[in-house]
Design brief:
CATH architecture of the largest domain in chain B: 3-Layer(aba) Sandwich
Helix content of chain A: over 70%
Helix content of chain B: 25-40%
Number of domains of chain B: 2
Largest sheet of chain B: 6 strands, mixed
CATH architecture of the largest domain in chain A: Orthogonal Bundle
Number of domains of chain A: 2
Largest sheet of chain A: none
Oligomer: heterodimer
Strand content of chain A: under 5%
Distance between the termini of chain A: 37 Å
Largest interface: A-B, 32 and 42 residues
Number of strands of chain A: 0
Number of strands of chain B: 20
CATH superfamily of the largest domain in chain B: P-loop containing nucleotide triphosphate hydrolases
Structural class of chain A: mainly alpha
Number of helices of chain B: 19
Strand order of the largest sheet of chain B: 6-7-8-3-9-10
CATH topology of the largest domain in chain A: MetI-like fold
Distance between the termini of chain B: 31 Å
């Protein structure tokens, strides 16, 4: 009997072009979602009760004729399909309309508010992810130890707490230690370091609130994902090779357990921007969340549509990034 | 000079909530360099615990007593530093690589090189791959890009990385196809002969051990029940458990293992027929022809074995016969009529043709009681009559007696064999004409295999139930099938009566399969 060939040459997988097609597919899918967001945003907010022209004229004496004139000026008297066409046409040129309340372009307003939100959300996410992953890894490695039980319990309490309530509680408990509203005092000297210190001072409470409310999920996902990996046979292989326990953890268990967490973190960064609405409102943090709240209170339709598109868009973009990053990190995904 | 490995009065106890449980009791074993020692037994007999204790890889809840002398040095009293130095450099383990013993997201080359770097040596991954007959380029692969046999070779290459004197192979060929198994066993035997290492080989399959080992120890309930030169233990087993283990793996061609009475095989009318059946899969790399023009017939009351390696298309064929997949071309006839396409028609058809899966543990919902599991099919098909009586009847047919006592039991409270009986009872409850069983005993322990096979034969005798048994195990086909069909790369290369195909194979592939089956007669 002749032995069959031990290894069959495997056909090369479509390397570069396959990856390119994959990326193109993901981005295409994201664009479709974004288009759906635009459509949904436009029609959904038309359902909100309240006449936009009434918002504009709040607190002033106007008669019917003036309101009708305003309507005509902003095009609210046109058929809804025509309004939509005009809106989409504007969007394609980067024009998201003009805020009824602020009398400024939506793009300008959003541009102004993006910075503070990114600062707040970025800082708190960074801290929450670091804290959550570290606690999750420690808890899983010493499963059911007092540390594991206590940290899981604390995390769950934070996770269960409503952000607005926790925010108010924190500002009450800390008294006058930290400012509980705004981003800076007007009395602060204009040089960079004084300003930075002032902003950091203002950021303490909103940041703490955001962290306390979200870090639990990073911790719990990391913990369960590491617990699952710890039963894996390849860790026994690693131990048998003579690796120390911390080497087994650092080289094999933790990197693999991090994989599912990566997706979660990215998905969540998109969501946190939205989640900041309550926290920014409670602490009057001049970011996108507060802007959304103000637009909703109006209702300020053009502004609302603008913030909606930006918030939903950030979720979609992060989703695509998570997918692409996963491709780089996990060879198993590359193959399938 | 002291032997390579000597176990003296080894005992292992696990601390559990209900006190200490002894996993291994009073085991004495000796292995010289250049020898192969086989350790046989069913799952849970303690054979893997013995293997893991040699490098102290047992979980923290384990308490070890006795001595484990590796080159005369007691492993149980070594310091952690000394132990880590000994691990892999003096003794290494070949885990069941087809499973999850390799890190899924690191290149296999790096994983082979890891212990070499750790123990301070020069990386020579390509040499190691060469020893296990793999091309050096495979070092850049990830585990999921390799076949089961290739992964097992990687495990062996990894075990050899630091030139150990002792290698422990824990079920190194389980889950591999026979031809690949023969190749892997060949590699191991050659390495023992060429490099003079000592090999401890652990398996539940006596025939695998018989073809490779010098000495053989049979374990049961944590203790060794029989030990001696492999030939003697196989040829004249003294302990009944050894005999039971040997009997569980039928020898092809040995009339003693043939459970079908010659007069049972009778002319029968065709029940299920596949005509020129082809199934294509559309994948990213183009179209895959999984099944190519298969003609297969199962008569009423007939047991047909569909034999082939993994990837040969046998499972796809079965799924198409069950109407779970539409054929690309060709047709399936049940009692002369083509399979219905409508959901309702297919449901009616599936009542007649029931599926039994390989692993009863995952086939049963862990939160459903036996009663629920069996009654579910009855409810879906709205079978008239007293549900409890029908369930009891089905359980009784599957020889779970008294049936009522099994009603409230949950799957985890049952043994593997009982679980498979519950799965079969679930199928029987609907009064099918044909059972399609996909590797029905592959995940079961040796001693219960025979019972399940006897049950299938009994059902045929009493209910006239036909069966299509999908398996990679030629011995299983020999044991209970009337006819056997051999599948290779989507094509049915040979089919006919069992005696004819297995004793006088016509096709070259069938011959290759038969040659690769490890034999208990050295």
């Amino acid at each position: 009997m002749t032995a069959p060939p031990l290894v069959r040459p495997s056909p090369r997988r479509g390397g570069g072009s396959g990856l390119l097609r994959h990326v193109a597919g993901k981005v295409g899918g994201a664009l479709v979602s974004l288009a759906a967001v635009v459509v949904l945003g436009f029609f959904l907010f038309r359902l909100i009760p309240g006449d936009p022209t009434v918002t504009m004229t709040r607190g002033r004496q106007v008669d019917e004729a003036q309101i009708a004139e305003l309507r005509a000026l902003h095009g609210y008297d046109r058929p809804i399909v025509e309004q939509f066409g005009k809106y989409v046409g504007g969007l394609l040129h980067g024009d998201m309309g003009t805020s009824l309340f602020y009398r400024r372009t939506v793009a300008e307003l959003i541009g102004e508010r993006v910075g503070p939100t990114l600062l707040l959300v970025g800082t708190s996410t960074l801290i929450a992810v670091t804290l959550g992953l570290w606690l999750g890894i420690r808890g899983a490695w010493r499963r059911d130890s007092p540390f594991d039980r206590a940290s899981t319990g604390v995390a769950l309490v934070g996770w269960a707490m409503p952000a607005f309530w926790l925010g108010m509680l924190l500002s009450m408990v800390t008294g006058n230690l930290f400012p509980s509203g705004g981003m800076r005092f007007s009395s602060t000297p204009p040089d960079f370091w004084s300003q930075a210190l002032d902003v950091a001072h203002h950021m303490v409470l909103p940041c703490l609130t955001l962290i306390a409310v979200v870090y639990a999920q990073y911790q719990l996902v990391m913990r369960s994902s590491l617990l699952e990996e710890m039963n894996a046979d390849y860790l026994t292989t690693a131990r048998a090779k003579g690796l120390r326990d911390d080497q087994v953890r650092r080289r094999h268990a933790v990197p693999n357990a991090l994989l599912p967490t990566v997706t979660l973190v990215f998905l969540h960064i998109g969501l946190v921007v939205t989640g900041a609405i309550t926290v920014e409102t409670v602490f009057s943090w001049p970011g996108l969340g507060l802007l959304t709240y103000e637009a909703l209170a109006g209702p300020d339709l053009p502004l609302l549509q603008g913030t909606f598109v930006v918030l939903a868009g950030s979720v979609i973009v992060m989703n695509v990034l998570a997918d692409l990053l996963y491709q780089v990190l996990d060879p198993r995904v590359r193959a399938s | 000079m002291s032997p390579l490995l000597e176990l003296r009065g080894l005992g292992v106890h696990y601390r559990t909530d209900r006190g200490e449980v002894a996993a291994v009791r009073d085991v004495d074993l000796t292995l010289e360099a250049g020898q192969t020692l086989g350790l046989a037994g069913e799952s849970g007999c303690g054979k893997s615990t013995v293997a893991m204790s040699v490098l102290r890889l047992l979980p923290k809840s384990a308490r070890v007593e006795g001595e484990i002398l590796l080159d005369g040095e007691d492993v149980t009293t070594m310091s952690w530093g000394r132990l880590r130095a000994v691990r892999w450099a003096q003794a290494s383990v070949v885990f069941q690589g087809a499973m999850h013993a390799l890190n899924p997201v690191r290149r296999v080359g790096d994983q082979i090189a890891e212990p070499i770097r750790l123990h301070g040596g020069k990386a020579k991954v390509s040499d190691l791959l060469d020893q296990v007959e793999l091309p050096a380029a495979k070092a850049r692969s990830y585990p999921h890009e390799l076949s089961g046999g290739q992964k097992q070779r990687i495990m062996i290459a990894m075990a050899l990385a630091c030139d150990p004197r002792l290698v422990i192979a824990d079920e190194p060929t389980t889950a591999l196809d026979v031809i690949v198994q023969a190749q892997v066993l060949g590699v191991l035997s050659r390495l023992v002969a060429e490099q003079g290492i000592g090999l401890v080989m652990i398996s539940h399959d006596l025939s695998v051990l018989a073809s490779t080992c010098d000495r053989l120890a049979v374990m049961r309930h944590g203790g060794i029940v029989e030990e001696g030169p492999a030939r003697e233990v196989i040829a004249s087993p003294t302990h009944p458990h050894t005999r039971a283990l040997a009997a569980a793996f039928p020898v092809v061609g040995d009339p003693a293992f043939r459970q079908v009475e010659p007069d049972e095989v009778r002319e029968s009318s065709p029940l299920l027929r596949a005509e020129a059946l082809s199934v294509d899969y559309r994948g990213r790399g183009g179209v895959v022809h999984a099944v190519k023009g298969v003609d297969l017939e199962i008569g009423s009351g007939e047991i047909v074995a569909l034999v082939g390696e993994s990837g040969s298309g046998k499972t796809t064929t079965a799924r198409t016969l069950l109407g779970l997949r539409a054929p690309t071309s060709g047709r399936v006839l049940f009692e002369g009529e083509e399979l219905p396409r409508s959901a309702k028609g297919l449901r009616e058809y599936r009542r007649q043709v029931q599926l039994v899966l390989q692993d009863p543990t995952s086939a049963l919902n862990p939160r459903h009681s036996v009663y629920e599991s069996v009654a579910e099919g009855l409810r879906i098909h709205k079978v008239p009559g007293d549900e409890a009586a029908l369930v009891a009847d089905a359980l009784a047919k599957a020889e779970l007696r008294p049936p009522e006592s099994f009603f409230p039991v949950l799957p985890h409270e049952l043994s593997g064999g009982q679980r498979q009986r519950v799965v079969i009872a679930g199928a029987l409850a609907l009064g099918p004409r044909l059972l399609v069983a996909d590797e029905p005993v592959a995940s079961l322990d040796a001693s219960v295999r025979g019972e399940i096979l006897a049950l299938l034969l009994g059902l045929r005798r009493e209910l006239g139930l036909a069966a299509l048994i999908i398996t990679h195990d030629l011995g299983l086909a020999w044991s209970i099938a009337d006819r056997v069909a051999v599948m290779h790369e989507g094509v049915l290369v040979e089919q006919g009566a069992v005696d004819q195909v297995l004793l006088d194979p016509r096709h070259e592939y069938t011959r290759r399969l038969l040659a690769a089956v490890p034999s208990t007669t050295p």
